[in-house]
Design a protein that fits this description.
Elements lengths: L7 H6 L2 E9 L6 H14 L6 E5 L7 H4 L8 E3 L2 E3 L1 E2 L7 E5 L15 H13 L6 E7 L6 H9 L7 E7 L3 H16 L4 E6 L4 E2 L6 E2 L6 H9 L3 E4 L4 H8 L19 H6 L3 H15 L5
Parallel strand pairs: 1-7, 1-8, 2-6, 2-7, 8-9, 9-12
Antiparallel strand pairs: 3-4, 5-6, 10-11
Bound molecules: adenosine-5'-triphosphate and iron/sulfur cluster.
Length: 292
Amino acid sequence: MAVSQDTPISRRLSHIKHIIIVCSGKGGVGKSSVATQLALSLYTSSPNVRVGILDIDLTGPSIPRMLGVDGHGVHQSSDGWVPVYADASDARLACMSVGFLLKKKSDSVVWRGPKKNAMIRQFLGDVRWGELDYLVIDTPPGTSDEHLSLLEHLSPARDRISAVIVTTPQAVALIDAMKCLSFTRAVNLPVLGIVENMSGYVCPCCGEVSNVFSTGGGQEMARKEGVPFLGALPVDTELVALLDAGEAMRGEGSGSEIPDGEFGLVKRYQGTPSARLFGNVVNVWEDLPPRS
Ligand SMILES: Nc1ncnc2c1ncn2[C@@H]1O[C@H](COP(=O)(O)OP(=O)(O)OP(=O)(O)O)[C@@H](O)[C@H]1O
Ligand code: SF4
């Protein structure tokens, strides 16, 4: 849908090529982890690619911690809020989250719909995102006010938005993922594909795979619904440690910034089926039918 209005949001959005909304039907299935990993994979896919990650999980912002930029502050410039750059060296990975605006990490955000809507509008209109190849947006679980506000504000970029749905393989998560898929259909939001997270546990000692939460449910749902299956991520204790320690932006255990292509999470999955998952997101994008 082309919108001719010239607004602060439409001006910012006109500099963003692709917008990927990461959503899930259910909480705790790994949506923020997938959004972080996706942003890092896109970032490392080429030395010139510019990526933004926007956390609109307003009541549970976790992206700053996962990217290791917890406690950083955003500041105002004459051209709006300057996002936090997770890569100090070349400012190609911009991050914005309500987490940067809280006085204390433990502060809770208790906002009603209108205030959440105003915050999302500010994130899109007031943040100086600059030129971006990809903006990855981490959303709250379910299909809430935030999703509706987001889509309304993103309407000037309607032809450049797609969703990635994250689920775990259990039946209860799949039912909620199905609701999420129905929502995308109701609002005419193209789906890049489904990610099955926590799909099997690989024993770090012997490599034996145990299907803790069963496996293949996300893949089966994708097949039945005619949506691309992007791939599966196993339950991985080292992934948790990297995300919890904010090591996603650093080499494993190095404790300091290291060059492009060697980020903790990306490095961890290099050459594995999970790495292909994130490559798939980019490939599937090219195959999407034209959008109205
Ligand atoms: N593949 C995985 N292996 C092991 N642990 C994981 C995996 N994916 C996510 N986790 C862990 O599960 C927890 C929840 O993940 P995450 O915060 O990404 O989920 P979410 O769906 O965004 O949650 P919320 O509903 O709070 O937004 C985190 O502690 C994360 O480290
Ligand atoms: S899968 Fe094998 S090595 Fe791993 S915990 Fe079980 S028995 Fe031990």
